[in-house]
Structure formats: C-alpha cells, structure tokens
C-alpha cells in the first residue's frame, strides 16, 4: 500500500479551507494534516512535516508568495502549490520564479485539482490548462528581456512606499529613518521588490515607478546611479 501524501492547506477564507479539505479527505492517498489561514498557524502545522503545501495567493495580511518566501528563509523546503483565482501572467511568472511546483485555478473541476496534486507529488511542474499558453508567453517574454505587464500591482503598500522613496534617490538608511523601521528590514523589502518586479537593480525599479507616475525617465526624482542618489539625499536633508 502506497504511503499517504500528507498535505497542509493555507487559505485565509475558512470556507475555501473547509471545502478543499473535505474534497481531499475523500480521495484515496491523501492525508490532510490541517488547514490554516496565517503564517503563525502555518509554522505550527509544518512541524507535522507535510509532504506538500497547497496555498492561496491573495491573502491578508500576507500573500501566499510572501508567506512562502518567509518560511523558506526559516528553513522550510516543503514543495508548494498555489491554488488561486488569479489567472494573471504576472502572478504565474512570479510563482514559477519563486519555485512553486504547481499553479492551479479555483475554477478548475475538482477532479482536475486532485489529478494535478497527484502529478505534483510525482515530481511534475503543473499549471492549470488555461494558463499553459500564458506560461509560454511569459517564458518568451523573459527570454526577450521584457518586463512583466502591470508588475507594480504585485507590491504591497509598504513596498510601494519604499519604492517611492527609492525613486526620490533615498538611501536605505534614509528610508529606515523616514519609515521608522530597521536598516535590515529596508534591505529585505528592497530585495522583495526587485524579485517581484524581476529586475536586477534598484535604479531600474525606480525608473519603472517613475514611468507609472508619469514622470520622465531623466526626472530629478529618478536616480541615475547609486552615487548620485546618495549625494542628492544628503543635500536634501
């Protein structure tokens, strides 16, 4: 007899948690260890060593990818599947780059979800059938060096605050003082911003923000280099 697949469910909506939990509990070979809606409860649940995490994407106060990134930093390497309402190419791209093993949609038929979970457990990378073309387009775009569409929508309110300050040429230290947070927290936020936007430098992120705000790329509010940004910040304070 094959060993049961131990699953942890993460969704901030109790109805979704219950519905998915009941579906999987009725399926042969699945053992639902628990269903939680916060990172604190997830930390407790993963102590039971699940084989797979099934997570929602849009959650409050921390979305699924941010939650996954945090527990990865804490040493949890359990494979993860996103089960979400979002059919956004940007969300798919960020999920794949974050290392998820599956990207499934909540409007899939129950039997499709179950089959996809089994395939992930068998080692496959699985996306919802309707997302296949978008994944191909996303990969083509990455190869061509294209930026994801509407990527700034991925940022949290705090990350947008920090990006706005970056676009003004503020240093990490100055941002920490302005927002009354630690220097290390600012560095972590900047790293998250660059990862979500799929960009290699804070200057590029500042330029992208400037474009969204309708500012010209050579505007004084957009740093052209780290050195100029630092000197501008010192002169303005």
Structural notes for this entry:
The protein has 237 residues and is α/β, with parallel strands linked by helices. It has a six-stranded parallel beta sheet, with helices on both faces. The protein is globular, with a radius of gyration of 20 Å.
Number of H- or I-type helical stretches: 11
Cα(first) to Cα(last) distance is 69 Å
Roughly what is the average pLDDT, rounded to an integer?
Answer: 81
Shape summary: globular
> Which regions have little confidence, pLDDT < 50, spanning 5+ residues?
143-150, 216-237
Let me know the CATH homologous superfamily of the largest domain. Answer: Response regulator
DSSP strand content: 5-15%
CATH C-level of the largest domain:
Alpha Beta
The spatial strand order of the largest sheet comes to: 2-1-3-4-5-6
Quaternary organization = single chain
CATH 2nd-level architecture of the largest domain: 3-Layer(aba) Sandwich
Class by helix and strand content?
alpha/beta
And the CATH topology of the largest domain?
Rossmann fold
Q: Largest beta sheet, briefly?
A: 6 strands, parallel
Binned, the helix content reads 40-55%
- Please indicate the count of domains: 2
H/E series? EHEHEHEHEHEHHHHHH
Report Rg: 20 Å
Briefly characterize the structure.
This protein is of the alpha/beta class and 237 residues long. The chain is built from eleven helices and six strands.
């Amino acid at each position: 007899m094959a060993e049961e697949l131990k699953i942890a469910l993460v969704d901030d909506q109790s109805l979704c948690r219950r519905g998915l939990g009941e579906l999987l509990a009725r399926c042969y070979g699945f053992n639902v260890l628990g269903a939680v809606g916060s990172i604190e409860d997830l930390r407790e649940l993963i102590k039971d060593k699940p084989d797979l995490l099934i997570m929602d994407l849009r959650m409050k106060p921390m979305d699924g990818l941010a939650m996954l990134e945090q527990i990865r930093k804490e040493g949890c390497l359990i494979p993860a599947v996103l089960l979400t309402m979002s059919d956004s190419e940007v969300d798919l791209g960020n999920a794949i780059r974050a290392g998820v093993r599956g990207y499934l949609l909540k409007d899939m038929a129950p039997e499709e979800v179950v089959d996809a979970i089994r395939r992930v457990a068998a080692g496959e990378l699985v996306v919802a059938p309707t997302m296949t073309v978008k994944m191909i387009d996303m990969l083509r775009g990455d190869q061509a060096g294209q930026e994801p569409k509407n990527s700034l929508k991925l940022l949290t309110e705090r990350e947008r605050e920090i990006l706005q300050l970056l676009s003004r040429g503020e240093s990490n230290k100055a941002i920490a003082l302005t927002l009354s947070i630690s220097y290390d927290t600012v560095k972590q936020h900047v790293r998250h911003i660059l990862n979500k936007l799929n960009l290699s430098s804070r200057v590029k992120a500042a330029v992208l923000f400037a474009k969204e705000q309708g500012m010209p790329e050579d505007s004084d509010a957009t740093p052209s280099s780290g050195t100029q940004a630092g000197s501008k910040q010192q002169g303005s304070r």
